[in-house]
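W.,

You were right to be curious about this one. When I first looked at the sequence I had no strong expectations either way, so I just let the prediction run and decided to look at it fresh. Below is the sequence, 157 residues in total, followed by the output.
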Amino acid sequence: MPETADSTRNVATVERLIKAPASKIFDLLADPSRHQEIDGSGTVQGTPEGSKRLALGSKFGMSMKMGIGYSMENTVVEFQKDAQIAWQPRPTIPVLGWFIGGRIWRYELIPQEGGTLVRESWDISRERQPWSVRPLRSKTVDAMTKTLERIAQVVEG
């Protein structure tokens, strides 16, 4: 699925109509223990046991792997029940935070006839070094497209 017209240099967005109510999709997104199941990039390896449903300000850990394993701590920075959720990851190793981290992963859920338009955005406007991740844009758009496919498979079934 191509990027939408509102994509900018620092924000890449993909969207898909999913045949499910916004509340069902939101419940999936607000459960960090299920993020590995829907991740289209293959980098999410899991969350610590006992992860709780997300709310504004929630912090949740995420084990990642891109070549090598690493961990991120995410903070929910936007939260409107059944409408929008976004989190901002930062590396768990403090010194790495000087160089990477700060992007925002955002999901907007817009009720439509026959389902919900789900818009996922990769916003690097608050990234520490946006120039260093911009080359990943095309790969990220592909991964987000796969994520929306996986979300559809989970909630439409």
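Here's what jumped out at me. The two ends are 21 Å apart (CA to CA). And, maybe more interesting for your project: Confidence is low (pLDDT under 50) at residues 1-6.

Coffee later to discuss?

I.
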